[in-house]
Amino acid sequence: MEGLLDFVLRDILTRVGGVDLCVTEFVRVSGSLLPNRSFLRIAPELLAGSLTLSAVPVRVQLLGSDPHFMALNARRLAELKPAGIDLNFGCPAATVNRHQGGAILLREPERINSLVRAVRKAIPRHIPLTAKMRLGYEDKSLAVACALAMEDGGAQELVVHARTKTEGYRPPAHWEWVGRIQAELAIPVIANGEIWTVDDYRRCVESSGVKDVMLGRGMLANPALARMIKQGAGAGLSWAGLQPLLFDFWQLVVQHTQAKTQCGRMKQWLKYLRNAYPEAEETFQTLCRITVPEELEARLFSQRS
Asked: Are strands 158-161 and 58-63 parallel, antiparallel or unpaired?
């Protein structure tokens, strides 16, 4: 989730437990060979064995459309020993799609196959190559063909966001389509999209027939969601129990981001937390007009005391 679920939130959310694997925001590949700092900026975990501080593996995602430059950059990234390399065929952003990246490639299964094949050939066999897709661009008519193209190109696992690009993030997610894709593929398929609660997870599994899911916005709204899926509702996190994580998050934001973006980062997360915690609304309203980091911190610590 570009601009939101970065290494800071990966650190915080994986502390809660229940997460088996993380995937970074995408590294955009165009017509050049990127320096190592481009990968390390998105995935500083590469300097620590490609693990979060809670020892959760982190795969690095690439986005692009040129097989040659995707392969070159994947080879360079492989030298940093990531836990895996993931390819993005799902981003719905207009600016990305205009430059032939993300979901727009779902119109061309053959092009997808060439891209995946080039990357697989460029990296060592021991590094997993995975992919993420939506169900299509305008419609779902090529969903299975695109998934087969990824598998044939060498992808070893596939995450399916169960909506098309044009459907965006509007409910519902079409989980049954994940099952249709899994029925045609030999590699594991993972469901993604509209999983906000444990009940959503159960309905997704029942509808799709797959056992594993990727959490995005639902995990931001409820940081204990993965733990609850594994351990039950009793593994949830109260608002009081969330406070240490909020303050740790703020300290990391102050440490790693520019002052002009720090208040926005806290408000951004609080907006999601309102979905699961009524108390987050009051906190958000208290902070929503604050633009000075020192003032926001003082208000947060005042609430804490």
From this structure: unpaired
Which CATH number characterizes residue 265's domain? 1.20.225.30
Instruction: Please indicate, yes or no, whether residues 73 and 208 belong to a single structural domain of this protein.
Output: yes
- Residues in the chain, overall count: 305
Active site residue 91: yes
β-partners of residue 129 are 85
For residues 58 and 52, is the Cβ–Cβ distance under 8 A?
yes
Tally of domains in the chain: 2
Q: What pLDDT does 1 receive? A: 58
CA-based nearest residue to 270, from 255, 294, 290, 292: 290
C-alpha span between 89 and 150 (Å, rounded): 10
Q: Is the pLDDT of residue 305 over 60?
A: no
Higher-confidence residue: 17 or 99? 17
Q: Are residues 117 and 193 in the same domain?
A: yes
- Is the separation of the CB atoms in 188 and 243 below 8 Å? no
Contacts of 291 (CB under 8 A, 6+ apart): 263
Structure tokens at 205: 């599994």
- What does pTM read for this prediction? 0.95
Is 144 buried (19+), middle (13-18) or exposed (0-12) by CB count in 10 A?
middle
* Cα separation, 81 vs 259, whole angstroms: 32
Q: Which of 91, 146, 204, 263 is catalytic?
A: 91
d(CA 290, CA 218): 26
